[in-house]
Amino acid sequence: MDIKELYQDIILDHGKNPRNKNKCKDFNKDAKGHNPLCGDKVHVYIKLDKEKKVEDISFEGEGCAISMASASIMTEIVKGKEFNVAKKILEHFLNMLKEGSKLSINSLTDDENTRMMSLSGVKQFPMRVKCATLAWHTFMHAVEGNRNTVKTEK
Ligand code: FES
Predict the structure, then answer these.
(1) Contact of 70 with 135, CB cutoff 8 Å
(2) Nearest CA to ligand 1 atom 4
């Protein structure tokens, strides 16, 4: 299997069987994201502890395979991480999608790096970058307590 096929398999798997797709118990932060162009929606729930560590995270929503896969991968990656670490991961992820930079984040395992890299192909399709980043931006809004819905369009 070549790397493209591997990435495709990861996206299909997460798109079909999204992880952490529910409303997690005792969440204390949440935010909504919306892509008005296609109508896709995501709602992210987070249980943040006193040290700003993501104790639990989940999401609900409807959308294309990329947006659901990305939300699913995001919940797996940031669960158990300090918010500052999660923020750094998000910066790397956005750079990867916009500039095609290779992802290699020390705080992630090889497997986690691969899961994030599986979304790198969307760089060639600017419209899909919005699908891949919706849940991540919504995560940031939730932690920062921003009550406005994240919109991909102004
Ligand atoms: Fe709507 Fe992907 S087509 S988020």
Answers:
(1) yes
(2) 131
Write the CATH number of the domain with boundaries 3-19+27-145.
3.90.1010.10
| Ligand 1 within 6 A of CB of 40 | yes
- Per-residue HEC secondary structure of 123-137 comes to HHCHHHHHHHHHHHH
Q: Is 65 in the pocket of ligand 1 (CB under 6 A)?
A: no
What are the tens digits of pLDDT across the range 85-109? 999 999 999 999 988 778 778 889 9
Evaluate if pTM is beyond 0.90: yes
Domain layout of the chain by residue ranges: 3-19+27-145
DSSP labels, 60-116 = EEE--HHHHHHHHHHHHHHTT-BHHHHHHHHHHHHHHHHH-PPP--TTS-HHHHHHH
Which of 32, 38, 68, 152 maximizes ligand 1 atoms within 8 Å of its Cβ, making it the mutation to test the pocket?
38
Indicate if ligand 1 lies below 6 Å from the C-beta of 67: yes
58 lines ligand 1 (CB under 6 A): no
